[in-house]
């Protein structure tokens, strides 16, 4: 499944972000149980940051796959 969305060279970074999301969710559960609602924005910011990092890594793969096709189109139209 990872190979469909991320470059193999980025797997370590992807797994770090996934583990970060798991830890943040565990922290959110503890905060909920303790009733520390004032920390919810911090949790949401951390989740947004982790998901944004995953989105950027996915975009990196998309761009890399798209580049050869774009270069081929440019070459075809120029020559």
What is the general shape? Answer: elongated
**H/E topology pattern:** HHH
**Rg result:** 19 Å
Q: In terms of per-residue confidence, which ranges show pLDDT below 50 for 5 or more consecutive residues?
A: none
In round numbers, the mean pLDDT is: 89
**Count of alpha and pi helical runs:** 3
Largest sheet features: none
Number of strands: 0
The helix-and-strand class reads mainly alpha
Distance between the termini: 39 Å
How much of the polypeptide forms β-strand, as a percent range? under 5%
Could you describe the 3D structure shown?
This protein has 79 residues and is an all-alpha fold. 85% of the residues lie in helices and 0% in strands. The chain has three helices and no strands. The protein has helices spanning 2-5, 11-34, 40-78. The longest helix has 39 residues, at 40-78. The protein is elongated and about 65 Å long. The mean pLDDT is 89.
Offer a concise description of the structure.
The chain has 79 residues and is mainly α.
Secondary-structure map:
Layout: H1 2-5, H2 11-34, H3 40-78
Features:
mainly alpha, 85% helix, elongated
């Amino acid at each position: 499944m990872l190979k469909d969305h991320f470059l193999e060279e980025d797997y370590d970074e992807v797994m770090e972000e996934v583990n970060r999301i798991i830890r943040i969710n565990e922290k959110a559960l503890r905060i909920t149980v303790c009733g520390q609602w004032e920390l919810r924005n911090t949790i949401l910011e951390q989740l947004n940051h982790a998901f944004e990092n995953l989105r950027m890594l996915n975009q990196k793969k998309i761009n890399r796959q798209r580049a050869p096709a774009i270069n081929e189109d440019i070459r075809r139209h120029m020559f």
